[in-house]
Amino acid sequence: MSAAMDTESTYSGYSHYSGHSKKAHRQGRDRHKSPRSKDGSRSEKSVTIQTPPAEPLLGNDASRAEEGQDDNWGETTTAITGTSEHSISQEDIARISKDLEDSVGLDCKRYLGLTVAAVLGLLVFLTPIAFILLPQILWRDDLEPCGTVCEGLFISVAFKLLILLIGTWALFFRQPKADLPRVFVFRALLLVLIFLFVFSYWLFYGVRILDSKDTNYQGIVQYAVSLVDALLFIHYLAIVLLELRQLQPMFTVKVVRSTDGESRYYSLGHLSIQRAALVVLENYYRDFTVYNPALLTASKSRAAKHMAGLKVYNVDGPGNNAAGQSRAMIAAAARRRDSSHNELYYEEADHERRVKKRRARLVVAVEEAFTHIKRLQAEEQQKAPGEMMDPREAAQAIFPSMARALQKYLRTTRQQQYHSMESILQHLSFCITNNMTPKAFLERYLNPGPTLQYDRDRWFSKQWTLVSEEAVTSGLQDGIVFVLKCLDFSLVVNVKKIPFIKLSEEFIDPKSHKFVLRLQSETSV
């Protein structure tokens, strides 16, 4: 209300201005508009899109509400703007449409593979049952009586099929983690092997049993049992090829992020290139710090500032080409290189000083805010003199005392785009609920965490493109390099084979550990 009264008083003060002051204000505004016309090229390259509430373009309603909030949530403000903060170029729009088309193709391919696998699995489990039931249905009166051994085989088939069903569910019916560009070779080979195996069994069954109407029912049941045994061995082969083969480390990969050079090392087994890329991405979201493009603008702005300070005079007339000017600017920038390191040193030192100062203010503000909260015990809740609050209300009560210090620190470290006010309140209420200390609350903000720590709407990498000179279905080899690209950066992966290590043994006799103390006459001893 006070802010509104100040605004009204300001507007009433503006009404007492004279006509001359209004004219001067209009002229000054026209002068301020003139530099904006020079940036016409920038307005042609990008377009600002504000998504309507009914059709979200870049996220869901909750994420759009968080992203639409102003960065000045730690201060009181009376200005409400409707400008969207998403600036998308025409190339990005074309890329989004292409990604949508590719996603439709990937979904069709994924569902087609799942359908084929489900149909084949159903055929596998129904085949042994059909082998046993068809003679009972077609020529029941001509069959020989089933003895005790034959009836015991029924129990064997039932339990083996149950074991095979559980093993197949555990190995194959898992939610896919990613859409790979090519099929998994070993999985496809297993499907082909199972199909050929079941087809050959049906072919033999049709020729030797159905056509001749074999009356030996015990032999028919044993034939079905042999099929189930063979399927169990194929399931064991699938476990070896799909799970056990890749466990032994054979290669070491170095993953480097192209923008800031952050790198990690991982050990991998016998994997194809596309599956190795999947393992690298899973570890990337866990081990690499979140990608922050705001940290990369300092060097670019510094270089632009140095180049802006150079002036080139055309002494030969207007006919001189631009190549000579560019060479002159490069030469002048090279001459100023000796003094640029001093500017970089003092700039980084000043930035570190401001970060340490605002960090200390933030730590003190959070510790003081946490001192106002006391967790009531069960017997104290009935006689508590003050008002009792739930964790959400307690977080909202103490948040204003630390908001300004937290906002300044996040701005200084360029992390404000990853933390909205709602996410901070949720984290604060979580810390209060679990009786965590102020240091535990600040851990998320003092040190940049991995990508998984933040909301999916804050990620800069969701869809990746695998670039490789070798076929993505081929196995890893020594010296292979492949690249994982996303919208803003890429991961360069270099594969090195673990060297063969030869160990030798040397035996040391325990009796050889004997020593003699030698004393000289010149010593003080």
From TrEMBL:
<feature type="compositionally biased region" description="Basic and acidic residues">
    <location>
        <begin position="36"/>
        <end position="45"/>
    </location>
</feature>
<keyword id="KW-1133">Transmembrane helix</keyword>
<dbReference type="InterPro" id="IPR009539">
    <property type="entry name" value="VANGL"/>
</dbReference>
<keyword id="KW-0472">Membrane</keyword>
<keyword id="KW-1003">Cell membrane</keyword>
<feature type="transmembrane region" description="Helical">
    <location>
        <begin position="153"/>
        <end position="172"/>
    </location>
</feature>
<protein>
    <submittedName>
        <fullName>VANG1 protein</fullName>
    </submittedName>
</protein>
<dbReference type="GO" id="GO:0005886">
    <property type="term" value="C:plasma membrane"/>
</dbReference>
<keyword id="KW-0812">Transmembrane</keyword>
<feature type="transmembrane region" description="Helical">
    <location>
        <begin position="224"/>
        <end position="244"/>
    </location>
</feature>
<comment type="similarity">
    <text>Belongs to the Vang family.</text>
</comment>
<feature type="transmembrane region" description="Helical">
    <location>
        <begin position="111"/>
        <end position="133"/>
    </location>
</feature>
<feature type="region of interest" description="Disordered">
    <location>
        <begin position="1"/>
        <end position="86"/>
    </location>
</feature>
<feature type="transmembrane region" description="Helical">
    <location>
        <begin position="184"/>
        <end position="204"/>
    </location>
</feature>
<feature type="compositionally biased region" description="Basic residues">
    <location>
        <begin position="19"/>
        <end position="35"/>
    </location>
</feature>
<feature type="compositionally biased region" description="Polar residues">
    <location>
        <begin position="74"/>
        <end position="86"/>
    </location>
</feature>
<dbReference type="Pfam" id="PF06638">
    <property type="entry name" value="Strabismus"/>
</dbReference>
